Amino acid sequence: MNGRRSRLTAALLTAAGLIAFGAVALLQGQGAAPESLPEIAMAELPVEARATIRLIRQGGPYPYERDATVFHNYEKRLPRHETGYYREYTVRTPGLTHRGARRIVAGRGGELYYTDDHYRSFMRIREKRPAGER
Question: Which member of 44, 72, 81, 118 is catalytic?
Answer without folding.
Answer: 118
